[in-house]
Amino acid sequence: MPVTSAGILLYRLQSEPEVLIAHMGGPYWAKKDSGAWSIPKGEYVEGAEAALDAAHREFHEELGVAAPDVPYAELGTYTYSSGKRIVVFVADGAGFEASGFTFGEFEMEWPPRSGRTASFPEVDRAEWVTLDAARERLVKGQRSAIDALQSQLDAALG
User: Fold this and answer.
1) Is there a domain that residue 130 lies in?
2) C-beta of residue 47 within 8 angstroms of C-beta of residue 33
3) pLDDT tens digits for 62-98?
4) Rounded to the nearest 5°, which phi and psi values hold at 32?
5) Around 84, how many Cα atoms within 13 Å sit in the side-chain half-sphere?
6) What is the rounded distance in angstroms from the CA atom of residue 104 to the CA atom of residue 49?
7) Mind spelling out the 3-state secondary structure of 60-71?
8) CATH number at residue 46
9) Which residues span the domain enclosing 140?
10) Are 38 and 140 spatial neighbours (Cβ–Cβ below 8 Å)?
11) Where in the numbering of this chain does the Nudix hydrolase domain appear (predicted)?
């Protein structure tokens, strides 16, 4: 059964629409920018937890702050080339400040084959970026969510 994640994509309407994305933490991603960012998200077990509840839990775990208390809409489910799926929820994040984060951590053997374990942040920063910047920075499997959001915003603002 494929791994399923749920995430929250906050947007705000500036002179150009912007979305909140997070740079993945750990040594592998440290010096990368293009393709090294993600929608705040995490895994959940379908049927054991509602996708939106999981998205809120993971937003808090990754960023250390609660997602805003606003209405959310399911944008869609997107599949990575690996088969992993992500259910994305969107919400108007106007007024949500990209600051004061306390990033969750994970442990892994580092350096490789050293036998030592080190802790790293799940994400090491989060920023508001334009939709074009998000398309460049996000991992490939999440980029179509930006296109879907763009289509919805175009239709709404038409």
Assistant:
1) yes
2) no
3) 999 999 999 999 999 999 989 999 999 999 999 999 8
4) -110, 150
5) 14
6) 21
7) HHHHCCCCCCCC
8) 3.90.79.10
9) 4-24+31-99+123-157
10) no
11) 1-151
Nearest to 5 by CA among 32, 38, 40, 44: 44
Q: Return the structure tokens found at 135.
A: 């398309």
**The tokens 């991992």 sit on which residue?**
139
Q: What tokens appear for 87 in the block?
A: 């259910």
Q: Residue 32 contacts by C-beta under 8 Å, 6 or more apart in sequence?
A: none
Long-range contacts of 132-136 (CB under 8 A, 24+ apart): 134/19, 134/21, 134/37, 136/34
**3 state SS of 31:** coil
Per-residue model confidence (pLDDT) at position 128: 97
Maximum CA pair distance of the chain? 57
Q: Within a domain: residue 35?
A: yes
**DSSP assignment letter at 110:** S
pTM for the model stands at 0.94
- Whether residue 116 lies inside any domain: the answer is no
Is the per-residue pLDDT at 158 higher than 80?
no
φ, ψ for residue 97, nearest 5 deg: -85, 135
Within-domain flag for 37 = yes
Instruction: Please give the tally of structural domains in the chain.
Output: 1
